[in-house]
Design goal:
By secondary structure, this protein is an alpha+beta fold. It has two domains: 3-116, Alpha-Beta Plaits (2-Layer Sandwich); 132-179, SH3 type barrels, CATH 2.30.30.30. 22% of the residues lie in helices and 42% in strands.
Length: 180
């Protein structure tokens, strides 16, 4: 995917008629497909969580809308994508001040996705094999090393750090390293 699209991709909240969240999601997905906007509008979510109810001594798990009347949309905001979402049946508008939609903060999105049990978005990887990096935090802080392995599924890298005259492999999280 084009890195400029990746950088401009943000989550927005749209307001819908109450009870129409799933219908709006389905309508929006159909419109995105029929108007070839898959390169600007990516994921559409109705935030749900499990609700446990005990009735007659039996445990029943049902889904409950976390934010009734709202749907989350991951998109690149352009005039075309705004128009498509805004004019979808059941959508009353974007959440934001005045006419300008305001994207959710990344930490808010992570919290909502985690609460829903949706796979947490992985941090973007800006490192390559063989690249020299500096350890930014942890017990090996300020050590310089070379990336030997990258494990995107875990969000970790193995870095060869020079200690006591020899290379020592250290497993670190993406957030613990930075380019030299």
């Amino acid at each position: 995917m084009d890195s400029s699209i990746e950088n401009n991709k943000k989550w927005y909240v749209i307001h819908t008629y109450s009870g129409y969240e799933n219908k709006v999601k389905a309508n929006l997905e159909k419109r995105v497909e029929s108007m070839n906007m898959g390169d600007k509008i990516f994921r559409i979510l109705v935030p749900m969580e499990d609700e446990v109810e005990i009735k007659d001594g039996k445990k029943k798990i049902s889904k409950r809308k976390v934010f009734p009347g709202y749907v989350l949309v991951e998109m690149v905001m352009t005039d075309d994508s705004w128009y498509l979402v805004r004019n979808t049946s059941g959508v009353t508008g974007f959440v934001g001040s005045g006419t300008k939609p305001i994207p959710l903060h990344e930490s808010e999105v992570r919290h909502i996705l985690k609460q829903m049990g949706v796979e947490e978005a992985r941090p973007k990887l800006a490192f390559n094999l063989g690249q020299n990096v500096r350890v930014a935090s942890g017990p090996f802080e300020n050590f310089i090393g070379t990336i030997e392995e990258i494990h995107p599924e875990k969000g970790k890298v193995k870095v060869l750090v020079s200690m006591f005259g020899r290379e020592t492999p250290v497993e670190l999280e993406y957030a613990q390293i930075e380019t030299v």
